[in-house]
Amino acid sequence: MTNFSGAFSITEASSPTEAGPARTGTAGRDDFIFRLSISATACHGFWHDAALVLPSVLFVLYLGFHARSNIKKLSHRRSFVMIGYYGLLWFAVLLNLGWCFLQVWQCTPGKQVAWNLLSLFATSAMLFLEISIVAFLLKENYASCLETLARTFMISGLFVGVDLLLKAIFIFGFGVPLFLDMEIADRGKWGVWCTNKLFLTAAYGYILFVHFSKWRDKLPPRPAFYNYVIVMFVTTAVMLFACGLAGIRGGFGLWLYNLTVVCYHSLYLPFLYVTFLADFFKEEDWLLDSAYYSEMKDAGFFDADWE
């Protein structure tokens, strides 16, 4: 050990190209950049973080680019349902973007509490969208949209509030590392996630069961809704399977769970937008006016003008 230290000091002192003050500043800066780059990819690696951040940033840029025209259409058509879900979408998108950018917090000492809080609110915002939009579309009669929307938000908020409270109790009360991916040996963590995904999988599975049964008339006649339910059923079922494997120390289960988490946080919100909101903003006003005119003409509203 002494010889190594001496060799290092001799090599350092005999370097003819390094000056004292200049070297200190350069070395300090290089060391800071090195530690920053290492900490930014220490949790999962560059490709994991890129797979999370890149789709989220692109989706935020897309929403921002169309925000002005979308807001104009919302104010012109005064659809309380679309206004509510568009605002919720922006809220969830920004929280999820922060969650994707700040992955390093879960590996930084002193940041675990902040990371857990950010994860709680980001996942709860997405879960609220996930529950409320299904609950709203399952209503048999939503002619009074504002009243139905308010009731849906209240019920969804109750479920999400209970979910958030239970997760907070497990995290801060029992020390279960729900959102710390480095803690893979905690069986309590996988038990909580298995229970969570089991409820979601059962809910989506029940909707699909009713759709293929004799009671399908009680469900909304919307193909996009069933495509959404099928995708979410498969996603939650795979996550449930991955949590079960990870709970019994399966390396493949942990890899599969991380993959589904990346897919959910990077693709779910764009998928939700394309499925339920994009068509509303794509339709031009003149197309709607033409459709309304055709319906009124077919109903005979303009027959008197020709007499």
Kindly summarize this structure in a few lines.
The protein is mainly α. It has helices spanning 2-13, 20-40, 46-77, 80-101, 112-137, 145-173, 187-211, 223-247, 251-282, 285-298. The radius of gyration is 26 Å and the shape is globular.
Name the descriptors.
G protein-coupled receptor activity, transmembrane, disordered N terminus, Transmembrane protein adipocyte-associated 1 homolog, TPRA1/CAND2/CAND8, mainly alpha
Secondary structure topology:
Elements: H1 2-13, H2 20-40, H3 46-77, H4 80-101, H5 112-137, H6 145-173, H7 187-211, H8 223-247, H9 251-282, H10 285-298
Helix pairs in contact: 3-4, 3-9, 4-5, 4-9, 5-6, 7-8, 8-9
Describe what this molecule looks like in 3D.
By secondary structure, the protein is an all-alpha fold. It has one domain. Helices cover 78% and strands 0% of the residues. The protein is built from ten helices and no strands. Helix 8 (223-247) packs antiparallel against helix 9. The longest helix is centred in the first third of the chain and has 32 residues, at 46-77. It starts with a helix and ends in a 9-residue tail after the last helix. It is a multi-pass membrane protein. Residues 1-24 are annotated as: Disordered.
